[in-house]
Hints:
- With 76 residues, this protein is an all-alpha fold.
- The chain is 72% helix and 0% strand.
- It has 4 helices and no strands.
- It has helices at residues 2-16, 18-26, 31-34, 36-62.
- The longest helix is centred in the middle third of the chain and has 27 residues, at 36-62.
- The chain is elongated, with a radius of gyration of 23 Å.
- GO terms for molecular function: glycosyltransferase activity.
- This is Uracil phosphoribosyltransferase.
- InterPro entries: DUF6341 (IPR045922).
- Keywords: Glycosyltransferase, Membrane, Transferase, Transmembrane, Transmembrane helix.
Amino acid sequence: MKAFFEGIQxxxxxxxxxxxxxxxxxxxxxxxxxxxxxxxxMIICSAxxxxxxxxxxxxxxxxxxxxxxxxxxxxx
Length: 76
């Protein structure tokens, strides 16, 4: 059983976390380069929030949104 868990450890430490180790070593050279993954995720989340708010505004302007407090059966 010990070999099984050591195999899982080897998989993650030796293979799957290598890109993250590379990013950690890159931080000493370029902070912006090391955080590119974070910047990409922030851009994707910002675009999703803008799209969501635009869709909310479309339904609010059309008046199709049901804002009644009993819109859900569990609120009755």
